[in-house]
Amino acid sequence: MPNNIQAEILSSIADRLRRIGFRKRQMRNFVCDLEKGCTGFVGLNVAHHLGGVLEINPVVGVRIDLLEDKLSELTGRDTKKLATPTLSRNIGYWSSDYKYRTYIFSNESDINVEADRLVGELLAIGVPAIRPFCDTNKIYSEIANPQFFNVEKRKYYEPVLIAMLGSRDKGLSEFLCARRGWVSPTIGCKTVSNK
Questions:
Q1: Residue 186: predicted pLDDT
Q2: Residues 70 and 124 in one domain
Q3: Which tens digits make up the pLDDT trace of 25-79?
Q4: 185 phi and psi, to 5 degrees?
Q5: Are the beta carbons of 173 and 163 closer than 8 angstroms?
Q6: Is the dihedral of CA 167, 172, 174, 180 positive or negative?
Q7: 48, 108, 114, 140 — which has fewest CB within 10 A?
Q8: In 48-188, where does DSSP find H-type helix?
């Protein structure tokens, strides 16, 4: 598929996303405000196939700003620039049929029809599915779910989530922070100095 047609397709999708409240962050990533401190995320992954076919795999997720900011502080990674989602997955896995979903654009495709379909499904399936995850209790309830948190990611998120949710699990939070090499004198973990 020629670059100008790919650009037209992505521009068509971006225009539709802007109309429903998303703003472009970087490359093919878009965000919208769901609630104070909670950001919706859409990433448009692109694959090129023989015969001029462009496949788009939309990833939909949510970012809890306070959680990501705390992790950024502890790990030294700047997640604000990237708008890193706290959890995300292909739009099809948010749907009731729970199937991987892509959108195919070929030279014969009507770009407007396909872009409308993609963004319409993001609005009908993706946004309502991620909205409950603006609640840190909901995020914590999924901490052991490998669809969202693999073992490595869970090591980072679990202690910070426990600390954010209050002192009822303060001992566990401090234990988990210490396992990561962090110190948790109160409710927040602090990075351990190597000096």
A1: 44
A2: yes
A3: 878 999 999 999 999 999 999 998 887 789 999 999 999 988 888 888 777 777 6
A4: -70, -30
A5: yes
A6: negative
A7: 108
A8: 65-75, 79-82, 111-121, 127-130, 136-141, 151-165, 170-179
pLDDT for 193 beyond 60: no
Helix then strand then coil, in percent of the chain rounded to 5, is 50, 25, 30
Kindly state whether residues 127 and 151 are assigned to the same domain: no
Q: Which of 67, 132, 63 is nearest to 94 (CA)?
A: 132
Longest dimension (CA), the chain: 62
Tracing tokens 């959108």 back to the chain, one arrives at: 103
Q: What is the rounded CA–CA span in Å between residue 174 and residue 187?
A: 9
Distance in angstroms (rounded) separating the CA atoms of residues 171 and 159: 10
Structure token digits, residue 12: 């068509």
Q: Give residues with Cβ within 8 angstroms of 85, minimum separation 6.
A: 41, 43, 59, 61, 62, 63
Q: 92-110 burial by CB neighbour count: b if 16+ within 10 A, else e?
A: bbbeeeeeebebebeeebe
The answer on 178 and 86 residing in a single domain is: no
Per the structure, the complete domain to which residue 52 belongs is given by 3-134
Query: What is the average pLDDT across 154-179?
Result: 69
